[in-house]
């Protein structure tokens, strides 16, 4: 601890602090510059995050064919069947007459097994056992290879073995403790034109569960049923399916009842669903260009530099907030990367799509540029015109946004936009990096590292300067003290002579 001023009576500590305050002015400027660059870096990253989110929205909405495949399907008697669109961009209509629903093959024990489900199977069979189960697939064919299960009767009960069968095979089994019988049902519906739908192999099935070897034999014995296909007529054409749920022309049909009565159905574009996706795209585009335009035109207050820690200590919290609001303003003003991106995005959306068979411009579907110059290129939607375009040909709108092409002019509007966003995000990342970037990998980061190095060197210099001041004041104090001592000596000498 340094204590000065004992000889001179001066407040040396305060004097050194005041001198160092002046010496620290260049360091404060470096700290302010560093803070400003950090604000600028963060503002760049905020823009990049918005662009990234907008890019994902484009991909998941207006560029996705499924967006335009949304259909509203009406059925004259929904109790007979339901229809939903999977991936068709065309409409689907006609008449369906359901004659028979698909059902699964079954079989069950001819008589009680007499098994106690709590006992190990070794009470009924001995030695390592292997059973095989073959059953119908969802498409109406049989498995290429039966499912095999090898087990030790001393380790299994009927319940544990049935659980294994149910988990690995296409058959579901159930032991009814009330009757002592086992029921087996194919997990998939349908009829196997070449034979049985359930085929079992193994002494366990025959000698322990009292089951037939397949469901056809069980049906003949009165202990089971054969699987059957769904039978129906589509626009007068009689046909069959192994399942009650199947696909026709990209639409999923689910049969519910077989009344053998003609039922009409028709589909049309889900105008509201498609409209919602396009409106969301426009809204996010407008928010992005509003943000970028705002940053490009935000005023820079050069008289409001970032506050130092010492300055903040002498200010109220509200004063600091108002000051920094202006100090942070204009970090991206007139930025060339963002200005170029905005111009390119406008060009992407307003230039016609070359070679398009249907629509070629946004205006054709009711999306135009705002007439208010303060909106700076925001899009506005004529909802009535857009709905008409969706109703007429949603696939044409998909092509307008997502068309592929060898050149930019031939590409769809959204495809162009994503390329511009991708290029801009890369340029911004080169300048401002991202959250996981190290400073050495981007321009502002390298500038920040350089300022840190300057600050470290200046801090070392300040320590030397402060030491010099203290040495000088200490030397002055010593000189004053010697002078005081000499004066006292002389006074004593003169006093003695009296």
Care to describe what's here?
The protein is an alpha+beta fold. 46% of the residues lie in helices and 17% in strands. The protein contains 14 helices and 17 strands. A 5-stranded antiparallel beta sheet has the order 1-15-3-11-12, with no helix packed on it. Strands 7-8-4-10 form a 4-stranded antiparallel beta sheet. The chain starts with 11 loop residues before the first helix and ends with a helix.
The overall pLDDT, averaged over residues, is: 90
Q: How many helical elements?
A: 14
| Number of DSSP-assigned strands | 17
Sheet having the most strands: 5 strands, antiparallel
Q: Structural class, from helix and strand content? A: alpha+beta
What overall form do the CA principal axes indicate?
A: elongated
Low-pLDDT stretches are none
Domain tally = 3
Measured as a percent range, the helix fraction is 40-55%
Spatial strand sequence of the major β-sheet = 1-15-3-11-12
- Our estimate of the beta-strand percent is 15-25%
Distance between the termini: 45 Å
Rg calculated over all Cα atoms? 42 Å
Domain Flagellar hook-associated protein 2 C-terminal: 227-485
Subunit structure: Homopentamer.
Protein name: Flagellar hook-associated protein 2
Keywords: Bacterial flagellum, Cell projection, Cilium, Coiled coil, Flagellum, Secreted
